[in-house]
Write a structure and sequence with these properties.
The chain is of the alpha/beta class and about 400 residues long. The chain contains 14 helices and 14 strands. The chain has a 7-stranded mixed β-sheet with strand order 4-10-9-8-7-5-6, with helices on both faces. It has a 3-stranded antiparallel β-sheet with strand order 11-12-14. Strands 1-2 form a two-stranded antiparallel ribbon. The longest helix is centred in the first third of the chain and has 21 residues, at about 60-80. The structure holds pyridoxal-5'-phosphate.
C-alpha cells in the first residue's frame, strides 16, 4: 500500500504534529509526494554544489550546467526546445508572467479571453485586470464542463491581446480542446496561453503540434519540489518581463535561480517522461474508474461531476448531494484518507467553488462535492479501502441530517 509512512502530519484524532501515520493519499492534484530520485538529485545542490549559477568560477558553472540540464529535461516533457523554457517559482508565477507579460508586450490591446473555470492563478488575476479597465470575456461551460468554440470565435476581435485557457480543469479533470483553440487563435494572430499544470506528466504534450504560444507547468504536481515551475515561451512569442533585476532566464525572470528546486524539477520531468512511455497512467485511469464505480455503488445519492469520458486519467469529482464537503473531508481525514473539495486554495471556505458554479451544478450538489485525485503510486488496496471509508463516513453524515 502506498502510504506516507513516517510522515509528520498535523494530528486530528491525536493531538500534536509528531506521530507517525499511514495515509491513503488521494489529493495528488493539490500536490504529489516528492520522488526519492528527485530528493537525491537535489541534495548535492544544497550541501556541496551551492554556487551561484551567474558566477564565473567553477562552483557557479557547475550550478549553471545543472540548470541547463534541467531545462533540457523539462523541455523534453513537452517536446519543446530548451531555450523555450523559462523557470519560475511555480504554476502561479508562470500563469502571471504569461498573462501580464503578454499584456505588457501589446500595450494598446485591452481585451482578454479566458474561461469561467480557470484556476485562481488565472481567474483572480483576470478579475483584477477587469477591475483595472481591461475587458475580460469569460467563456461559459456547460454542465459537463465543456466550452463552446463558437463563443470563442464570437469574442475574438482586433482588441484581443490574449486568450488564456487551461488544458484540464484541476477540480473536475475535464480536458479542453486545446489544439482546436490554438488553431482558432492562430488564424486570428492572437497569442494563446495554456495553463497545463494538471496535464503535464499525465498526458503526452507536444508543443510543436499543440500550437499554443505559452504553457505553464508546476514541479510539485509531478513529484517534484514545491516552489519550481516553468513557462514555455514559443519562438516569436512576444513577452515582457514582470520582475526587474538581473539577466537570469533571458531577462524574463530575473533573480538568482532556485538551483536545487530546478534540478529537482528536471529530474521529476525526466521521471514523468519515462512514466509516459509505460502504461502507468492507463492503470491509474482503471483504478480511478474502479474507485468511482465503488463509491457510486455504495452511495446511492452520489454522482460524478463533469464529463467522465473526457478527463485526465487521475481525477474524479463526486458530489454527495445535501452533505457538506468540509464535514466529509474532516471525517475522511480522521480515517486517514486525504481528498479535497474544489481547489485546495479555496477549501476552508463554505462557498462552493467558482468552477462548479460556472458549470451550473445545483447548490446542494456543489456544496457536497469531493475531488479524489490519484497518482501512479496509488494502489488497488488503497482504492478499495477508500471506497469502504467513504461509504461509512457518508452514511454516518447522511444519518445526522
Ligand atoms: N494552475 C492549475 C490548473 C493548478 O491546478 C495549480 C495548482 O493547483 C496552479 C495553476 C498553481 O500552481 P502552483 O501551486 O505551482 O503555483
Amino acid at each position: 500500500m502506498h502510504s506516507v509512512d513516517g510522515a509528520i502530519v498535523p494530528g486530528t484524532r491525536r493531538r500534536g504534529y509528531n506521530h507517525i501515520v499511514s495515509l491513503i493519499y488521494l489529493d495528488n492534484n493539490s500536490t504529489t509526494r516528492v520522488a526519492p530520485e528527485v530528493v537525491a538529485a537535489m541534495s548535492p545542490f544544497w550541501e556541496r554544489q551551492y554556487g551561484n549559477p551567474s558566477s564565473i568560477h567553477r562552483a557557479g558553472q557547475a550550478a549553471r550546467h545543472a540548470i541547463e540540464m534541467a531545462r533540457e529535461q523539462v523541455a523534453e516533457l513537452i517536446g519543446a526546445k530548451s531555450r523555450e523554457i523559462v523557470f519560475t517559482s511555480g504554476g502561479t508565477e508562470a500563469d502571471n508572467l504569461a498573462i501580464l507579460g503578454t499584456l505588457a508586450a501589446y500595450p494598446t490591446k485591452r481585451h482578454i479571453i479566458t474561461t469561467s473555470v480557470e484556476h485562481v492563478a488565472v481567474h483572480s488575476l483576470c478579475e483584477r485586470l477587469a477591475g483595472e479597465g481591461y475587458r475580460v470575456s469569460w467563456l461559459k461551460v456547460d454542465e459537463k464542463g465543456h466550452l463552446s468554440l463558437d463563443q470563442l470565435e464570437a469574442e475574438l476581435c482586433d482588441e484581443t491581446a490574449l486568450v488564456s485557457v487551461m488544458y484540464a480543469n484541476n477540480e473536475t479533470g475535464v480536458i479542453f480542446p486545446i489544439e482546436k483553440i490554438a488553431a482558432v487563435c492562430g488564424e486570428r494572430g492572437v497569442p494563446f496561453h495554456v495553463d497545463a499544470v494538471q496535464v503535464a506528466g499525465k498526458l503526452p504534450i507536444d508543443v510543436t503540434r499543440l500550437g499554443a504560444n505559452l504553457l505553464s507547468f508546476s514541479a510539485h504536481k509531478i513529484h517534484g519540489p514545491k516552489g519550481a515551475g516553468a513557462l514555455y515561451v514559443g519562438r516569436r512569442t512576444r513577452l515582457r518581463n514582470q520582475l526587474v533585476g538581473g539577466h537570469q532566464e533571458r531577462d524574463l525572470r530575473p533573480g538568482t535561480e532556485n538551483v536545487p528546486a530546478i534540478v529537482g524539477f528536471g529530474e521529476a520531468a525526466h521521471l514523468a517522461c519515462e512514466r509516459l512511455k509505460t502504461d502507468g497512467w492507463g492503470r491509474v485511469a482503471a483504478l480511478r474508474d474502479e474507485l468511482e464505480r465503488g463509491i457510486l455503488a455504495a452511495v446511492p445519492f452520489a454522482r460524478v461531476i463533469g464529463d467522465a469520458s473526457c478527463r485526465v486519467p487521475n481525477t474524479t469529482n463526486i458530489a454527495f448531494e445535501a452533505l457538506e464537503a468540509e464535514a466529509i473531508l474532516i471525517a475522511l481525514s480522521e480515517l486517514d484518507v486525504c481528498a479535497s473539495s474544489g481547489s485546495a486554495c479555496s477549501s476552508g471556505s463554505l462557498e462552493p467553488s467558482h468552477v462548479l458554479k460556472a458549470m451550473g451544478i445545483d447548490e446542494r450538489a456543489a456544496h457536497g462535492s469531493i475531488r479524489f485525485s490519484l497518482s501512479t503510486e496509488s494502489t488497488e488496496e488503497e482504492c478499495r479501502a477508500a471506497v469502504e471509508i467513504v461509504r461509512r463516513v457518508v452514511s454516518r453524515l447522511a444519518a445526522l441530517q
